[in-house]
């Protein structure tokens, strides 16, 4: 029996599906109106169900689809459409886009590299329409709110073409997965389809999160928007006094940036650009040094310069923030939302705009020291698990390495805790003694000795991760417990210039990041099943809105669900911390000060105006 035969026998019907719709707002996550839905039977392609929904208040689905296997390309759109039509949630979803990403994300990059037309071309499926034709057909839907019979027929025909193309790509994808993952037995098929349906359900959960939206303090957002242009330069000037990197026009002065790097004692290890030989100043590299206050201030200044372009200051009509969470957007399966639309993607002071809806509280539920715990459970390293179970794995490690007294805590010795974090980073990303020496401020000889002792302490994990890399070299893929994969050419990848580059250090952390993303997906699904309103995923945490009243009991219930999710994925419990938010989300002192400074400056400006631009009632 082939994988395709197994799928056919496992479901009453297997149907490719596509919906056409118009979005309600600029976030492109909330549907204003579903225009039509088309289903096509995978094994009997002449069985096509066309449902015109535009202008109709109550439209029934032509069949009960909950037991069927639905095959969309990017399931969030179809799941959102079903919710808009009050059809409910599909139980079985195979997201062709997600599975395509699982197979080929490592090898294909750039805009449109994994879209439907490109994927069809990869599988040698004849072109049914060009990108230009597809864009034109979509414009007919987006730019119209009424449709005559001719336009209606044209849109249904276009939608049917998309469905048929999805059907043909799916058939090729099934063969591809069977070959690449060496599926042979019914047990292999069962495991594979179960894991694929888990990812499909996760996409459906994303639609619910996007639909919920993040509640914010809309009056404060409006006050900020109305007055920001008038206070921006004054604030940037004030912060720049702390680091002296920019001129009066907000332009970075390279020589002053060099001095900043030197003042923070990281000049010797700071990377340089290949062409000019100058110090790197790009955003991604700067983020490595946000543990240093000067670079945190530097990032805030850069964020302030770009702030008016951020979509977070253009909430939806209901006053909530939304963005596409783009689950499975990274090679490890993590979410990768647009930085302009994601309030969690910028400086933390922006989170102070977040405020629960009336009669509710928000709860930030965060897996504590998740990577350390995952590493211990996956490797079966009892010493690492013991460190995690001590309450703070970093401080316990420091004590075992005689880096601090036995009575030390993270409150009394925070710098020691940060030093141990550096050792774990070196272990998980392949950094050597040079990196450790630079970050700990010790000699290269001492750094090398410390690393050797550290690796000896967790020798079970070191041996296990070594065996994982050997397996990657042989099988050319690395897989999480729930089946998310990164395919590769062993521990190397071929760049566009044809040269080979080692990806060993990236692969070292894949088990922790990949399984961490599976844990979060499992947690979100289970929280929603228990009727929790999950409004956002934040790396290894979730933001949940809970009605006041019995919220304390509900918070404990949510924590238990998340702990159970971690046990389900990696075989051991990971603690879940909580932060309850009753009003504007208070940030840590430094970040909250930025937020307060901005509004103090705005208030000062408003008072100086004869006719203030803000409504201060």
Brief characterization of the structure:
This protein is an alpha+beta fold and 617 residues long.
Sketch the major β-sheet. Answer: 4 strands, mixed
Distance between the termini: 72 Å
- Mean pLDDT equals 90
Indicate the overall shape: globular
Strand percentage lies at: 5-15%
Low-confidence stretches: none
Discrete helix count: 21
* Order of neighbouring strands in the sheet with most strands: 3-2-1-4
Kindly state the percentage of residues in helix: 40-55%
Number of strands: 14
Radius of gyration (Å): 26 Å
- Assembly category: single chain
Helix and strand arrangement:
Layout lengths: L2 H8 L3 E10 L7 E11 L6 E5 L16 E3 L3 H10 L11 H9 L11 H7 L8 H12 L6 H32 L5 H27 L1 E2 L2 H26 L10 H10 L19 H4 L6 H14 L13 E2 L38 E8 L2 H10 L2 H8 L3 H8 L13 H16 L3 H8 L3 H14 L1 H17 L1 E3 L5 E3 L4 E3 L5 E3 L1 H26 L3 E6 L2 E7 L3 H20 L5 E6 L7 H20 L9
Parallel strand pairs: 1-4
Antiparallel strand pairs: 1-2, 2-3, 5-6, 7-13, 7-14, 8-9, 10-11, 12-13
Helix pairs in contact: 2-7, 3-6, 4-6, 5-6, 7-19, 8-11, 8-21, 12-13, 12-18, 12-19, 13-14, 14-15, 15-16, 16-17, 17-18, 19-20
């Amino acid at each position: 029996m082939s994988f395709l035969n197994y799928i056919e026998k496992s479901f009453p019907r297997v149907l490719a599906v596509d919906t056409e719709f118009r979005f309600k707002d600029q976030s492109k996550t909330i549907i204003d109106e579903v225009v039509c839905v088309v289903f096509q039977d995978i094994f009997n392609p002449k069985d096509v169900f066309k449902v015109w929904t535009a202008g109709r208040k109550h439209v029934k689905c032509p069949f009960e689809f909950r037991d069927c296997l639905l095959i969309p390309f990017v399931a969030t759109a179809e799941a959102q459409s079903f919710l808009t039509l009050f059809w409910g949630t599909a139980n079985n979803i195979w997201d062709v886009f997600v599975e395509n990403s699982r197979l080929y994300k490592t090898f294909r990059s750039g805009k449109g590299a994994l879209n439907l037309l490109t994927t069809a071309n990869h599988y040698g499926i004849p072109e049914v329409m060009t990108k230009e034709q597809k864009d034109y057909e979509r414009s007919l839907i987006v730019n119209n709110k009424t449709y005559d019979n001719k336009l209606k027929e044209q849109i249904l025909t276009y939608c049917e073409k998309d469905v048929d193309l999805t059907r043909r790509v799916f058939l090729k994808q099934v063969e591809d997965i069977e070959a690449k993952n060496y599926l042979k037995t019914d047990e292999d098929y069962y495991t594979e389809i179960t894991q694929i349906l888990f990812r499909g359900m996760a996409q459906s959960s994303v639609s619910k999160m996007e639909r919920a939206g993040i509640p914010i303090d809309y009056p404060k957002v409006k006050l900020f928007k109305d007055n920001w242009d008038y206070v921006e330069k004054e604030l940037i000037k004030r912060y720049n006094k702390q680091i002296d990197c920019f001129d009066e026009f907000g332009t970075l002065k390279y020589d002053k940036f060099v001095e900043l790097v030197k003042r923070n004692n990281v000049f010797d290890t700071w990377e340089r650009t290949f062409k000019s030989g100058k110090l790197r100043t790009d955003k991604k590299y700067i983020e490595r040094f946000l543990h240093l206050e000067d670079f945190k201030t530097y990032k805030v200044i850069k964020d302030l310069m770009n702030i008016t372009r951020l979509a977070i200051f253009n909430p939806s009509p209901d006053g909530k923030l939304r963005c596409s969470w783009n689950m499975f957007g990274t090679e490890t399966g993590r979410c990768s939302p647009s930085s302009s639309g994601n309030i969690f993607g910028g400086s933390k002071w922006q989170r102070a705009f977040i405020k629960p809806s009336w009669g509710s509280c928000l709860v930030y539920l965060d897996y504590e020291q998740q990577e350390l715990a995952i590493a211990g459970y996956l490797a079966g390293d009892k010493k690492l698990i013991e460190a995690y179970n001590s309450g703070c794995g970093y401080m316990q490690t420091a004590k075992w390495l005689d880096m601090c007294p036995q009575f030390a805590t993270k409150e009394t010795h925070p710098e020691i805790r940060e030093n141990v974090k550096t050792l774990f980073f070196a272990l998980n990303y392949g950094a050597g003694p040079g990196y450790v020496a630079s970050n700990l401020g010790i000699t290269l000889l001492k750094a090398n000795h410390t690393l050797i002792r550290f690796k000896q302490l967790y020798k079970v994990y070191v041996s296990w991760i070594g065996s994982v890399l050997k397996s990657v070299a042989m099988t050319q893929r690395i897989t999480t417990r729930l089946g998310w994969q990164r395919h590769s050419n062993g521990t190397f990848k071929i760049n566009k210039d044809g040269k080979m580059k080692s990806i060993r250090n990236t692969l070292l952390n894949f088990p922790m990041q990949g399984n961490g993303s599976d844990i979060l997906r499992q947690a979100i699904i289970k929280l929603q099943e228990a009727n929790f309103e999950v409004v956002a995923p934040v790396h290894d945490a979730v933001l949940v809105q809970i009605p006041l009243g019995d919220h304390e009991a509900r918070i404990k219930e949510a924590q238990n669900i998340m702990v159970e999710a971690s046990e389900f994925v990696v075989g051991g419990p990971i603690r879940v911390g909580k932060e309850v938010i009753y009003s504007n989300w208070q940030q840590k002192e430094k970040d909250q000060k930025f937020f307060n400074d901005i509004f103090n400056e705005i208030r000062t400006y408003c008072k100086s105006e004869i006719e203030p631009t803000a409504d201060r009632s």
